[in-house]
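User: I'm curious whether this sequence folds into something compact or stays loose and floppy. Could you predict its structure so I can see for myself?
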Amino acid sequence: MNPTAATPSTSASSPDRVELLVHSHPAHDDPPGAMLRTAHLPRTARALVVLTLALLLSLAAAGTAMAATPSPPTQTSVQITPVDLAQQDTVQAVAITVTNSSPAPMTRTTVSLRGPAGWTVGPQSVEIRRIDPGERAHAVFDVRVPTLRDGFRMYPFTATITYRGGDGIGTATQERVLTSGDALGSIAEARNNVGVTTLEDTTAGNFDGGGNSFSAEALEAVGVTPGATLEGAGAQFTWPDVAAGEADNVTASGQAIELGTAGSRIAVLASGSGLNASGTMTVYYTDGSRSEGTLAVPNWTGAGANPQAEVVAASTGRNTPDGYGNENGTYSIFATSIEIDPAKTVDVVVLPGNSTLHVFDMVVV
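Assistant: Here's the prediction. I'll summarize afterward.
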């Protein structure tokens, strides 16, 4: 019932009492013409009751209006020109382009640029007095590119804009990440751990740091064999096509791996060797932007992080340095995923830095 008006009426039986009628627009579960009738009130309380009810109705109306007010759309775009990482030990100009797509001018615009840690960027900020509707302006910074370290490296640049007028939001940011060196070409190139062994030789495995590993025979009993297709988290994975006793998974330690495709999620086939097998996975896109997501799976015994992860396969027992053991235990492989921007193409994925997180496969879906 949605009250819209309060009408005091004097009771015929008692001139010193007032009856308060609250009229309403019927809600979906109210009969037509529904009305709330209060108990008779002393005349001295009439003013207080009417004032209180009027205040409540005003607040409700204001709340409805506020809830219906949408946030203003962003109409300010920012672009960062890249430096040439091949030209090391040089000072290069980086231009920040600010475009005003709103119908109002932007005034008192301040542009600042933050470079990678340890890099020199100047000036501290650039002031732009006015950017008319449909126009763009440029702020130029000097960036010193130092000698770069070997291996795959990421260098983030972040432009921050503050302004008045325009779309009324008052601030905008843009990040561009440059990379140097080569990322690993596939998950197979990153494999660095033996997680599966046979009964004939259990000593090669060390999935959990204690010399224990999945049993190849037990996995085969549930359909997990070299090169097999496994399904989970809405994705199709390929189980590592390697013999038992060879490196078959990646212990996550910040490896950068190329994917080079587009989709809405990155699905991961993994298992944990600890109770906190989780961390931040960073996704770099071909346009220089990036996003992050939490990658987490339970311990291979089923306890620990992210109990909602889907069980793809559960095998009985495991191999120990002394042979097959823990016959009453169940050791599992899980599937989970993180969301990515479906409008962009993934360039490189950087795994979390957590060696208790073991990745067997990773696909974009």
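Summary: The first strand starts at residue 2 and ends at 10. The mean pLDDT is 86.
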